[in-house]
Each structure stands twice: as structure tokens, then as C-alpha cells.
Amino acid sequence: MNPVTFHAPQASAEALRLAAGGAAALIAGGTNLIDLMKEGVMRPAALVDISNLPLDGIDATAQGGLLLGATARNADTAYHPLVRSRYPLLSAAILAGASPQIRNMATDGGNLLQRTRCHYFYDIAVPCNKRAPGSGCSAIGGLTRQHAILGASEHCIATHPSDMCVALAALSAVVHVSSQQGERRIDFADFHRLPGANPERDNTLLPGELINAIELPPAGQFAAHSAYLKFRDRASYAFALVSVAAALDIGPDGAVRAARVALGSVAHKPWRVPAAEDLLVGQQAGSTAFEACADLLLAGARGQGQNDFKIPMARRAVVRALEQAAAGTIDNMHAPADSAGKEPL
């Protein structure tokens, strides 16, 4: 590992001063960054540890939403009573990711910034436009089982690996960031970016910006009808081949009043198409409407050969996740609620 200067500021102003210009890497849980440094993929000259900053709160907002501090641990977030009751979709997504040990260490802000698990990105002996811009993409024509079927470019076909971010996309979260120039809010749909000609940029953060919190708008109408579905090569501690975050607001007549659907591990960012969700509104919650939604969500999907299977898999996953959401569960992990909405024994 290369020599690195370590700072542990006690105040946000000091952290922003140290991070200004973007030469230093911010670190909290370090569950991805340390791995990248060990592999030689990232070689920051300085680390700014933000663990001492007061950014670990999980608090209700006056508008009925929730504010997740950037350094709140993933496990604390998943098991927080307000998250479980108001946003069971988010709780289920976090618990589907990583291992208990990693969730106890990883932070909410760090989850947004984790980098692709593309094999070629981690292998510094081969070209990779994301790691070394302009060097080429070794994944194209290579081993592509886990790679993108949507939104890819001729420069990069990597996918974003997060489970938490798929739920945050479906819940229309907002990311609060600050820098020495001030504060700003970024809609989650605009936070991560597609690769285009600059796959080295995973997101729209500017150099020197610090994530302070993630805001969840009120979403109580989805709490009783949401589901997170993850397909992977083994039951534990594996990144998704395809994942789906689905949430429905269903009226007494069985018709859908509002819908949210996001796909994970199929693109450079969580994949959401509002027009596909709009197809469900006013329709009876059932397979016909769900299949139409899946078709539009996956319009333009294209495989790389070895990952062609992900297209039909994603279609079936969307339909199944919507079916599970419509059935209604208390926490997305157990049996459907009974007609009175009580958790089954």
C-alpha cells in the first residue's frame, strides 16, 4: 500500500477544508475503499475520516419523512423502528446485501459511493476505462455474466452493486451534500450516472463535496405493499444478478393508485422508468398490468452474450416482485399479512 496521510477532523468545516479540491478520499466505514486501496485500484494521497462528525442520526422530518445521517451504519438503519414501519422496502433491501459484519461497519453515505464489482475494474493488469480513462474496456467481449443490459456504452458495461440504492431510487430519496461553496440537494435519480464516454465518474458529486444525509420523503402509502427481490448465485453474501424494489399503493377496489419500481445490477445506476410505473396506475393489481410494466421497464435491454439470461430473468423478477408487493407483507421477509393487516404468528 502506498504512503497515505490520515486526518480525523472533529468538525464538518475542517473536513470540508481537508477535502477541498478532491485530492483526499473521505472515509467512514471503509468497507469498499480499503479493499480498493489494497488492490491498487485507488491510491489517495490522504484520507479524511468523517466518523467523528455528528452525521450518524436517523431522525423523522417535520414533513413525515426520514433523514438518514451519512455515517449511520447500514445495520442500524435497517433495524431502526421508523425505517421498518415506514420504509420496510429499504430495510429489506439493506438486509439483502453483504453480511451482518459488513452491515455493522458500512455506512449509509458509503453505500451510495461503493464502486462496481466488475472483475476487470479490480484487476489493475488489464485495461479499464473506469479505473484508467481511455485505456479500453476489457469486459466487452470478456466475462460478462454480471454486467449491464441497460444504459451501457461502448466505454463501459459495469453495473452498480448496491442493494440499498435500488430501494432509495424507488423511494425517490434526496441526497444532501455540502462543500466549502455551500450546500445542495441532489434527487436520487440524478445522483448516479450512466457511463457514457466518462465511466470513471460514478456519480454527480463535485470534488470536495461531502454527503451529509439521505432524505426519504413520506411514503406511508407504500408501507403495506412493497417487496425487495434479489436473484444471486448463492443465498448469502453475493451481489445481485438482478434485483427489484417494488412498491404499490392499492385502493380498496384493488386498483393501483401509485407505483414505484426500480431494477438493480442491470445498469451503471439503479434503473427506474417512471412511464413504466404510470402504466400501473388505475389498473387492477395483477399479472397483465405487471407484465406490461416489466416490458416497458426493460425496453431497449441488450445482453453481452454471457448475460443475455438477465433480460428474461429481470422481466420475471419485476412481475414476481410486484405480485409479492400486491400480496402485502409486514416486513417483506415473512408471510403475507392477513385480511386484518396483522402480522401472522
Quick one: CATH class of the domain at 222-327? Alpha Beta
Please report the total strand number as a whole number. Answer: 11
CATH topology of the domain at 222-327: Enolase-like, domain 1
Count of separate DSSP helical elements: 13
Please give the order of strands in the largest beta sheet. Answer: 4-5-8-6-7
CATH superfamily of the domain at 222-327: CO dehydrogenase flavoprotein, C-terminal domain
The mean pLDDT is 94
The radius of gyration computed from the alpha-carbon positions, rounded to a whole number of angstroms, is: 20 Å
The structural class is alpha+beta
- Helix percent reads 25-40%
Strand content is 15-25%
| H-E order | EHEHEEEHHHHHHHEEHEEEEHHH
Shape category: globular
Notable traits:
three-stranded parallel beta sheet; 13 helices; Uridine Diphospho-n-acetylenolpyruvylglucosamine Reductase, domain 2; alpha+beta; Enolase-like, domain 1; disordered C terminus; five-stranded antiparallel beta sheet; 345 residues
